[in-house]
Amino acid sequence: MRVVLLDNRDSFVYNLVDLFATLGAEIEVYRNTVPADRVRAALSPTPAEAEAGQRPVLCLSPGPGHPREAGCLMELVACALSEDVPTVGICLGFQAIVEGCGAHVGRVGPVHGRSVRVEVMPAGLTDPAFVPLEGGPLDVARYHSLGTRDLP
């Protein structure tokens, strides 16, 4: 598995690099200040990936601010959506996916630090990244009080 990680200037980025490395992934990191075309080129499957029916995964990292103020982030979300690139977004990265799909991110009330129950859908368990979550629902802590609003 090859992961193309967009660094949105967050200290958590190299925790993600380490996590993907433990899964055996080859990781390429690009700052969100590089031209989007450079990252898009990295998302093209290698001949070996194409032959195996695989393509790189795009990981959109956390970071400060609003998705539309994060360099090439929104341009890459549009690319991922139009070209069916497997994508995972974390915090700001997920907010960018939400915005790219036509919804909006907004405040959902004071839930920072509270625990919520998350259930990984059975289809998600076929991905090696989620196999460790196979024991059923798990409790996670909310890091902020933002959520998806105005779904299309």
TrEMBL record:
GO BP annotation list: L-tryptophan biosynthetic process; phenazine biosynthetic process
InterPro entries in the cross-refs: Anth_synth/Amidotransfase, Class_I_gatase-like, GATASE, TrpG/PapA_dom
GO cellular component, one term: cytosol
Start and end residues of each Glutamine amidotransferase domain: 4-147
GO molecular function ontology, one term from the record: anthranilate synthase activity
Pfam family, one: GATase
Keyword entries, A-Z: Glutamine amidotransferase, Lyase, Transferase
Enzyme Commission code: 4.1.3.27
Catalytic activity: chorismate + L-glutamine = anthranilate + pyruvate + L-glutamate + H(+)
Keyword Transferase recorded: yes
Name of the protein: anthranilate synthase
Organism: Actinomyces urogenitalis DSM 15434
